[in-house]
Amino acid sequence: MNVRKDVxxxxxVEAFLAALDHPSRAEIVALRDIxxxxxxxxxxxxxxxxxxxxxxxxxxxxxxxxxGGVQVILHLGAKRRADAAGGIAIADxxxxxxxxxxxxxxxxxxxxxxxxxxxxxxxxxxxxxIEHV
Length: 133
What we know:
The protein has 133 residues and is an alpha+beta fold. It is 35% helix and 24% strand. It has a single domain, classed as Aspartate Aminotransferase, domain 1. α2 packs parallel to α3 (112-130).
């Protein structure tokens, strides 16, 4: 599962973030670092008008219109997968995930203190999630 890091995609995300006028920009940047640092196979790009992350498939996308903080949507690619219809098992001891569907969940972060408090747990969730992608 070794995905080649695309320098152009990373540069595109960096340019997008540099131009981003968002009240939670610092939290978005910190969460990006957590996601990218969770596993060396994770690459990034702009998908669905937001920073998104992939291994073999896209699996995480920022929801930039979320109110009161930052929301990361975890999914199993752009299309529903029949093999995930019954749900996937993710260890989530800090209850970071709000399940939106059997194959999609959301993680919300109120502010930088919340990001810092959940940093290790979120990285662990990301590592577990990409096993299903």
